[in-house]
Amino acid sequence: MSKGVRTILLLLLGAQLNTVPVVQAQTPTPTPTPRTICPAQLASNLDVVVNRPLFNRVRWGLLVQNLNGQTLYNRDANKLFTPASNTKLLTTAAALQQLGANFRIRTSVYQEANGVLRVVGRGDPSITDAQLTALAKQLKAKGITKINKLIADDSYVQGDVVVPSWQWEDVQSDYGAAFGSFVVNENAFTIRLAPQAVGRPLQINWIDPNEARIWRILNQSVTVANNQETNLNVTRDLSGNVLKIQGQLAANANPFAVTLPVVDPNFFFLRRFRVALASEGITLGETAVEVGGASQLEVAAIQSPTMGELAAKTNVDSNNLYAESLLNALAVRQTRKPGQTTSALGLEVLKTTLTQLRVNPTSYFIVDGSGLSRKNLISPEALVQVLQGMAKAPTASVFRASLPIAGRTGTLKNRFRGTPAEGIVIAKTGTVGGVVSLSGYITTPNYEPLVFSVIVNQTEQPARVLRQAVDEMVVTMTQLRRC
């Protein structure tokens, strides 16, 4: 998630961006005729897919091994590829290894003199309005009914609120929301666009009226006749406070919800906390954002779910904000050098941790925790080494549980259904423009457990076509038997 101030959210109805990390309806993998193949036949079977004329210009990277490192298939596995969300495998593995499966992120409220409260955020990505209400209830139970000044202490996460190399359309979409010391409701808010009489602009309904005061609206949309095509653009100008709405919605269409990333996470947190305090009858005077200060008497606190649960949210749903928060959490027990960002320190810890897992440090280069940056480069070899290392780690079961299950959960829910891979493949997906990746474990019924990584780069083919090819190869892997 890039917290930067670049802005042009582009949402086109009927055409989702490839980087959206939500579960998408996908064409089911064709069900092959049940069969088994010997290990010696695996290469020829996978090459049939790779060498199709459709993929003449495609760059493939594949590695299939057992858990002990014996190679069954290798195609440019040591080369670097754009990995998309397979990057999250590195981030979650390092977080579980470094911090442990039971680690939790704490958000604290400290009491200072003269009715001043200081909230110290530490990058918990799971906070919602409900958790803020819990904080407010704790304060009320302590007899606090009036706060003269509320400070959001932004000391924990230092650096850009979005990764500088994220693309503009990403940082303007909810899947590219800003991250930092404070996160509420995944740092996004929703508006609904509703049709009016034909010829009239669309009506804008704010789910959170507080956000309406932050934006200037340039509404160039129009309501058109019944059953006409829906075509909407929602864009932000570079300063971040002008929301431009363009396009059309049919008069008989249902209202359309658009979820947008917030501009400033710290002040968004303060606005949402003010609402929670008011709901408990606590009055609030001024608010401010500061870095550093006295934090001695903790009067209220909330904690995130465990690191195991945060890793599951990161991988199963391919949540970018969670991934960036976990990357920053890697710096929690370290000392930053002067001028060093929290994420840069997190990347240092990640690399050290993966080297301890026997991952070749020259086999990857990453700049974020989510895989949204096109500057990330990872080899299939590195991804397989991460999976093999984590299979032998104390948190092996937690790491495996964080991955989507073929045909069952998360970003694999609608893939592999009705195939031999359903339920026995657990793997991390990845998709950005021109990139499809899948890396994970296979519990083969007639062979030993396998670890695999498939990455497709540099192609104009639709992601749907690439996924079908990748899935076909993975199904083939499940059919191995001892010969």
UniProtKB/TrEMBL annotation:
The keyword Phosphoprotein does not apply. Residues 1-25 form the signal peptide. It comes from the Bacteria. GO terms for molecular function: serine-type carboxypeptidase activity. Keywords: Hydrolase, Signal. GO terms for biological process: peptidoglycan metabolic process; proteolysis. InterPro entries: Beta-lactam/transpept-like, Peptidase_S13. Gene3D superfamilies: DD-peptidase/beta-lactamase superfamily (3.40.710.10). It holds the Pfam family Peptidase_S13. Belongs to the peptidase S13 family. This is Peptidase M15. It comes from Dulcicalothrix desertica PCC 7102.
